[in-house]
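Help needed: design a sequence for this.
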């Protein structure tokens, strides 16, 4: 049975899972804003299935990542629980609203809207990573506001666990950057679990693809754990930003094709 499972793994998905996990562990960003666009563009998943499968992968990967960060003592459990009070129920409600769409014509419009939301969230992610003005604006918002916005985005797009949680914890939460990254992992884990259960209970999931992504994740984590203590924050930002940018370029092309503009 084990040999059968290993034989069914997709080597390209394993490679993708390796790089996804490396970037998520190092920066706290990428579980949605990198994985979801990549699943749409590279593996031809429709947006709803990409959100569902990406969320399940993010949950399973972050279980392992949480253990790694907790061993290094970087996770602030108190601030993490505070962030989840409002964010978690909004995530579930947003995800549930997507599963209720049954009209095929409406689904086409929903898919286009999802790709646009993921694209906008990705642009916000890059802006918050490299633009001081965006960081300053986010720092003015309370932890409750950022929690609510994150819940809305996570439920609909699978994006937001790192894009908004890391800046929220470092500004409104008062944590250091590395502690914010470490704490964002278990927070994102719980949010991704909520999204994946909501979609999975409705039969929206590509389990074979998730298994291949996780195989790559398991291989990458020992290396990622070592690099986390050696890489500078600026290096992590540049690497993560590069891969997010490439994923978003592909998503723009997919969005234009869906709108029949090219």
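Sure. Designed sequence:
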């Amino acid at each position: 049975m084990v040999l059968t499972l290993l034989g069914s793994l997709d080597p390209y998905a394993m490679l993708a899972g390796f790089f996804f996990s490396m970037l998520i562990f190092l920066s706290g960003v990428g579980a949605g804003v990198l994985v979801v666009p990549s699943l749409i563009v590279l593996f031809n998943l429709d947006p709803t299935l990409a959100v569902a499968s990406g969320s399940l992968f993010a949950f399973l990967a972050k279980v392992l990542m949480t253990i790694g960060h907790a061993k290094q003592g970087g996770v602030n459990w108190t601030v993490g629980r505070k962030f989840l009070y409002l964010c978690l129920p909004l995530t579930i409600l947003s995800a549930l609203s997507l599963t209720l769409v049954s009209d095929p014509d409406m689904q086409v419009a929903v898919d286009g809207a999802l790709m646009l939301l993921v694209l906008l969230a990705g642009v916000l992610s890059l802006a918050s990573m490299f633009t001081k003005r965006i960081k300053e604006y986010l720092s003015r918002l309370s932890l409750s506001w950022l929690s609510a916005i994150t819940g809305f985005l996570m439920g609909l797009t699978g994006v937001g666990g790192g894009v908004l949680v890391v800046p929220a914890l470092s500004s409104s939460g008062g944590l250091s950057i590395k502690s914010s990254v470490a704490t964002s992992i278990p927070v994102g884990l719980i949010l991704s679990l909520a999204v994946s259960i909501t979609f999975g209970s409705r039969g929206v999931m590509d389990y074979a693809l998730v298994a291949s992504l996780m195989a790559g994740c398991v291989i990458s984590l020992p290396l990622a754990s070592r690099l986390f203590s050696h890489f500078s924050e600026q290096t992590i930002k540049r690497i993560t930003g590069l891969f997010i940018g490439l994923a978003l370029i592909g998503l723009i092309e997919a969005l234009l094709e869906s709108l029949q503009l090219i």
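The chain has a mean pLDDT of 76.
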